What we know:
The chain has one domain: Gcn5-related N-acetyltransferase (GNAT) (Aminopeptidase).
Amino acid sequence: MNQVEKARIRDVDQMQKLINYYADKGEMLARSLSEIYENIRDYFVVRQGERVIACAALHVSWLDLAEIKSMAVAEDSQQQRIGAQLAKACLKEANELGIATVFCLTYKPAFFEKFGFSQVDKAELPRKVWTECYRCPKFPNCDEVALVRNLEAGD
């Protein structure tokens, strides 16, 4: 079992390469180095030795809302439940922070549905969640699926 840890500054270059590998394929939003540095406390990573093989972020949007974003697992490390570990770490942290609702925008809704997320119409999400969308090449014709999960105390 791989260990999920909070990201460190030394991980940023590798995290960006991993995220942008999938962004170049149109599967997620690209992230700049400055954006990752500024939000380093949002990120979890899984390392194999010194190599970052996976990452994900829990970004707090408001007092009762957070987003799981930038989840990426290296192709040669998939099918090992690393994504599941990252999702659970994000949900655990959201619960510890007292966040009531976690959402995500994804092309892989079935993955998040395994963790109790439900699909919703994107229009149901508050406008605040769309602050990054203007940078997306698909804006305003977003084809990602919006999902939410309401957390109960003890989740």
